[in-house]
Every structure is written in C-alpha cells, then in structure tokens.
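Practice problem 4.
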C-alpha cells in the first residue's frame, strides 16, 4: 500500500473504519520497519571459530581466527605445552601459505543462498578415518550433522541449493558440495578439497565374498509404486503449467519383500531361508550384506515392518541357513534411523551394538557366534548420542553422551570414553555447555568447542589421555552483537505433565524490551519425534529474533514425545503424534509467566513448518483455550498422506485408528482461533495435497481461516521472503503487539 493509498483510505473511512484501518495496516507497516536485524547483526561475533591445521608430527597446529569486522590473525599452537605464537612471529614461512589462506577464506565465505526442491546425497567414505558433515546455512554457520564412519555409506536428505561441508576429524576441509535438483552419490577419497568426486556408475559386483567364491543378490517381485503429481503453475521456461510426477510411497502402501540368493562361481544358486526376514521394511527391495572375513557367513539387517522387531541375521554361505545374531523387540517402536549403530570386531568374534532395551540408549558387547550379549558396555539414566571412534587395539570406545550431570541441561553433549568391558568410564569434557570435539591426527589431543544458547563459544585444547586442559585457544567476543540490539536468550526449566520431568526451553525478548509493558507470546514449534529442537549452541537465531523484534516474546521448548531423554519420555509420541507435547508446553509457558508479569497469557500464538505445521494447526484444534493464533507451513496434516518412512516409524503399521485420531483433516471442524495455512506448490517432501485437503475440510465445516499457496516454492514456503512477511504480518494483525 502506497502513502497515497493510505491517505485516500483515511479520508474515505469514518471513525470506526479508521480504527479498523489502523489495526490491519499500521502494525504491518511499523513491524517491517524494524526487521533489519539480520543486516545489523551480521559479522558481529569474533573469535568464535577455530579450524585447526595440524603440522607434520601432530604436535602443533595453526589456525586463522576472525578478530574484528575486517581483521583476522593467524596463530600457531604447540600442543604439548600450549605455547601460543602470533603470525608475525611465524613470518608466514611455509606455515600459512597463500594457497591455504585462500582455501580457508573460501570455506568461510561460501554459504547456502537458496532453497529449492527436495534432494539428497549419498556419501561413500573410502577414507581410513571418520569424517564430519556440516550444512553451511544462510548465515555461513557450520551446522553439524554428525559423522560418516570410515568405510561406510550415508544418505542425507537436503534441498537443491543447500551447501554442505565435509571435513576430517582434525578440521581439514575435504569437500564442499552444493545439492542439485536430483540426488547425487559422492565418493569421499581425500583427493579433492573443493569438489567431491561423483561415484562411477559401475562399482563392481554387490555382495561379493572376500574369497571370491560367490555373490549375494536381492530378488523381489515388482511392487507398483504410488506416484503423486506436483503442478508447477508458472514454470521458468514457459507460461503453461507443467505436471511433475514423482514416486512417493505413503504409509500402508505395499512394499517389496526381498529374497536373498547366493550364487556360486559354478552357477549354483542357494535361496537364503526367509523365515526370519519375512516382512522387511524396505522401499528399494534390497538388503545390504556384510561378510565375515573367512567368507563362511554374511550378515544383514531385518527391520520388520511396524518397527517393533529388529534383527541382525547371519546366513551360512554354504547352506543358506539363517540364525539370529542380535534381536531387539519393543512394545512401542525401535528408533531404527538413530539407534541401530553397530561395529564389527571380527578379529575377536564380537560386535558392539546400540540398544534402548533398558530404557536408555546404550552400548552392548555381543558374541557373534552365539548371538548372546556378553555384557553392557555403558549404563545409566543417560543416553549415548553418537559413537566417534572405536579403538580395537586398546579395546575402548569414544562417544558423545548427554544427561550425565545433575543440574546441567540434559541435552548437552559431552565427550566420553569407556573400555569394552564397561570399566574405565571417563567424561573428558566438563564445562556446562554443548561440546563439539575435533581430534589431532594421532588422537592424542582434541580441540573442544563448547557453548550454550546463552553463552558464546569457548575453544580449548585438551589431552585425550585424561581430558586435561592444555590451554584455552579462543573465547568468543559477542560485544558487537549485543550492541547491535540483539538480546541474549534466557534458558528456562519447568515441570512437565507428570509433575516430575524437567522441560527445557528458551525465551527471547525484543531489543526494545520494556518490563513495564505486556507482550504477546509466540511459540516456535517443531515436535518431530526424530530429534530435539531447542537450540543448545550459541548462534544469532535470526528466525526467533526477527519475530521477537515485531514486539513478541518468542519461546521454544521440547516437550515429551521428542528424542534424547530416554525411552519413556520418547514413547509419548507413539501412535499419538497429535499430542506433540502440548500438555508440557502449556505448563512451561504458564510457569514462565508466573514470574514474568510482562507475558500476556491472553495473547498466545504458535508457528511451525512441516511436522511443526501439523503441530501448529493442532494447537487450534485441541488447545484453542490457550493458543489463539497459529501459522502452519507445509504441514503433514494427515499422517496417511505423508512419506512412509517417517510416519510408520512413529504411528506404526498396519494403518489403524490412531492415524485418523491424529489427523488435522479429520478434526478440522474443531478449529477455533485465527489460522493461516501456507504451502509451497512444488513441495516434494510433504505432499501439498495434505494442506489442500485440510483447506477443503475447513471450508466444508464453514470455518474462517487464511490460506496462501506460494507459487514456484518447495518445502519450507514460510521461510521465503514473502512467506516470512506473511507469517509475521498475520501474527502482528491478530496478536497486536
């Protein structure tokens, strides 16, 4: 609306209409005059990143650190005594070469610039060491996505245009890759530093025995795959709409049932007995095998459809007979995507296996031959989060764990070590924060960077032997960030629905916060059971802060049903995704308001995307006495409409009444409050028809709501400039900060 339009409208309307005009337009205009937060807080945190470049011998390293808006310095560290030298003392002779400077700059400057359609990578790590995987987000921050173990493969979902960084565990850059429209397979071989090499189309014979005597293949009858049609109403190469048809398997759809076949070099074929793997959960129809070194048997996984039975099976290469090596059974679900890690110890005939059988994610040592557990390696009311390294010679495991210390945020990850026999457990990091570690080439030192949402990063050098501190490398300086009007998040803890369990979250205030005023509160929600989502590391959190700058108190917390707090906490989601932790969320917000009179509990809004979109709409279906306004972006509003792997994992199989009971489509008639639905018409992650069906159900129920499909956009449409403005405008209009 132009200034002329505003003046004309003002003169045209009477007194009452002028009041309505102000309510609907003034807030929108004034709100967007203060959303320059990303620009004014850019490049305001210094000394927050250390990427070590170890020198030959592994006893010293150098790094480049940003010290100001346009300044950097190079530092050389003697790892044995912690002695520090500045670049002026090094005279830049062979230690910091021009080529290395350029490479470091490229890594720091390249970031994700756009978000296209759904895509992915398959990474094949051919190195003899583990590597780390990072997404370089729009702000150039390196968001860690775990590791890829030596000699293993990993599939990673992403979006076209997203940039990914692969580094060694010592921080050296191995590859920077940008996702394309179609998924790519990439080999990590250490030969390139800026571009990963694409996997050759022919990789040899799958399932080949170490002694060359036979191969194992998977055979399965063809199953007709479900397809969905995505309409591109305004394609880039023309005016007329285009229909894109893609494979998209949904819960309850038929899946292939593979049969393993052993083929000998003389052509003889042996069908592997199927009694123990009758109904596997696999969309591809393939079962990957791992051979024993002596070629007598091979091993494969069986994740039974429904995710309540998981086995590692061994098949005899001569007879095809199958036996059980490991078996997991749970009454709810087995978190097969996050908690089925294993490490084969063929030299000793053992296997290290991850399990939640005692209610927490821990490691167990198995006898491969007998298929019986020898003992539990780790134990306690805390979870193993990620295994970093297995030292077979020393018979010890290095891993990250959380929830170790009473009184500390239970999501903070710490580096730990334990012997295979369960003895010698040691927590090697101690500071109250979330820890990220990088080891020296010989693993005798590690660089520990720790932070919290309310504490800028501190980077330290430690000895691996005992975790002892060698020296502090850097302490991040966020003075300029705070001076730019950015407010430090506040961590808050309150009891959940059982009156015992702590629910952890954070509170963010606007830069012009005035405690004498009343502020509406807006919750950023994502209750997907596959993880936990309240930030635990320091960052600008621009999405949260930009919303707060409009005059809101922004909160985020992880209620029951999310991950990393033990099996009982997690199980609240099973066949019950509509719960989304709302009983815990309401108690948490109410508790926060009791000691913060500036929170107005009569004006509570909520927003989220994808699973968070499903959650946000559910707030106005089941909890409209508390939440008054919701923006739901690209929601999987009915779990029968979304992708199979995510939804059957938490809602189970076969499809039963629980799917209907958690459906926003089925419950659309219960809507009360102000709802805005957003969807990207090119969304290949969540079928956009799910949102359209909800629109239809709301119309049938004669409900008033807002709906905005965004043309030419994929998943996460509310994160586009137009979608973000629309979301903020809706919140401002209805919550009136």
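Answer key:
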């Amino acid at each position: 609306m132009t200034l002329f339009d505003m003046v004309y409208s003002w003169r045209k309307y009477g007194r009452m209409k002028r009041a309505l005009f102000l309510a609907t337009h003034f807030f929108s205009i004034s709100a967007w005059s203060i959303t320059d937060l990303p620009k004014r807080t850019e490049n305001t945190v210094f000394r927050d990143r250390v990427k070590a470049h170890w020198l030959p011998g592994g006893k010293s390293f150098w790094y480049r650190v940003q010290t100001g808006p346009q300044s950097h310095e190079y530092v050389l560290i003697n790892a044995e005594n912690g002695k520090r030298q500045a670049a002026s003392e090094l005279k830049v002779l062979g230690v910091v070469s021009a080529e290395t400077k350029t490479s470091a700059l490229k890594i720091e400057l390249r970031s994700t610039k756009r978000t296209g359609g759904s895509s992915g990578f398959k990474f094949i790590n051919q190195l003899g060491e583990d590597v780390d995987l990072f997404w370089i987000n729009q702000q150039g921050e390196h968001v860690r996505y775990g590791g890829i173990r030596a000699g293993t493969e990993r599939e990673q979902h992403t979006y076209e245009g997203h940039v990914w960084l692969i580094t060694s565990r010592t921080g050296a850059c191995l590859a920077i890759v940008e996702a394309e429209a179609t998924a790519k397979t990439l080999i990590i071989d250490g030969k390139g530093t800026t571009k990963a090499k694409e996997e050759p189309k022919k990789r040899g014979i799958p399932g080949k025995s170490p002694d060359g005597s036979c191969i194992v293949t998977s055979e399965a009858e063809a199953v007709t795959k479900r397809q969905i049609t995505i309409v591109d109403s305004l394609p880039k190469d023309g005016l007329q709409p285009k229909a894109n048809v893609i494979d998209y398997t949904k819960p309850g759809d038929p899946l292939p049932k593979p049969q393993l076949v052993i083929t000998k070099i003389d052509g003889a074929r042996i069908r592997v007995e199927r009694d123990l793997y009758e109904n596997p959960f696999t969309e591809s129809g393939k079962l990957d095998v791992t051979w024993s070194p002596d070629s007598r048997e091979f091993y494969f996984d069986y994740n039974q459809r429904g995710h309540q039975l998981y086995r590692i099976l061994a098949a005899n290469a001569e007879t095809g007979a199958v036996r059980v090596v490991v078996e997991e059974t749970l009454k709810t679900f087995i978190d097969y995507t996050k908690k089925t890690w294993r490490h084969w110890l063929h030299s000793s005939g053992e296997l290290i296996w991850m399990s939640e059988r005692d209610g927490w994610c821990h490691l167990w040592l198995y006898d491969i031959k007998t298929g019986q557990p020898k003992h539990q390696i780790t134990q306690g009311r805390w979870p193993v989060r990620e295994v970093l390294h297995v030292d077979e010679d020393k018979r010890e495991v290095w891993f990250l764990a959380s929830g170790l210390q009473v009184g500390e945020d239970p999501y903070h990850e710490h580096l730990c070590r334990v012997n295979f026999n369960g003895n010698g457990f040691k927590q090697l990091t101690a500071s109250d924060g979330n820890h990220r570690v990088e080891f020296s080439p010989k693993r005798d030192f590690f660089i520990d960077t720790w932070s919290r949402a309310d504490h800028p990063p501190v980077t330290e050098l430690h000895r691996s032997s005992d975790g002892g501190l060698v020296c502090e490398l850097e302490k991040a300086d966020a003075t300029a960030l705070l001076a730019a009007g950015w407010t430090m998040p506040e961590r808050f803890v309150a009891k959940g629905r059982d009156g015992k369990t702590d629910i952890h979250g954070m509170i963010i205030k606007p830069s012009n916060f005035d405690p004498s005023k009343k502020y509406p509160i807006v919750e950023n929600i994502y209750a997907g059971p596959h993880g936990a989502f309240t930030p635990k590391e320091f960052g600008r959190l621009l999405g949260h802060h930009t919303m707060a700058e409009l005059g809101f108190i922004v909160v985020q917390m992880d209620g029951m049903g999310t991950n990393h707090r033990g099996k009982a906490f997690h199980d609240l989601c099973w066949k019950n995704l509509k719960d989304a932790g709302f009983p815990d969320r309401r108690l948490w917000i109410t508790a926060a308001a009791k000691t913060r009179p500036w929170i107005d509990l009569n004006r509570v809004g909520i927003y989220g995307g994808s699973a968070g979109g499903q959650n946000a709409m559910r707030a106005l279906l089941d909890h409209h006495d508390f939440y008054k306004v919701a923006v739901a972006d690209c929601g999987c509003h009915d779990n029968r409409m979304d992708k199979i792997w995510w939804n059957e994992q938490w809602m189970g199989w076969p499809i039963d009444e629980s799917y209907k009971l958690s459906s926003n489509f089925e419950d659309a008639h219960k809507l009360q409050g102000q709802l805005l639905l957003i969807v990207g018409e090119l969304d290949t992650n969540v079928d956009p028809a799910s949102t359209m069906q909800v629109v239809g159900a709301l119309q049938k129920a004669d409900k008033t709501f807002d709906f905005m499909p965004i043309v030419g956009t994929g998943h996460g449409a509310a994160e586009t400039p137009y979608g973000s403005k629309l979301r903020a405008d809706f919140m401002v209009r209805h919550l009136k900060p």
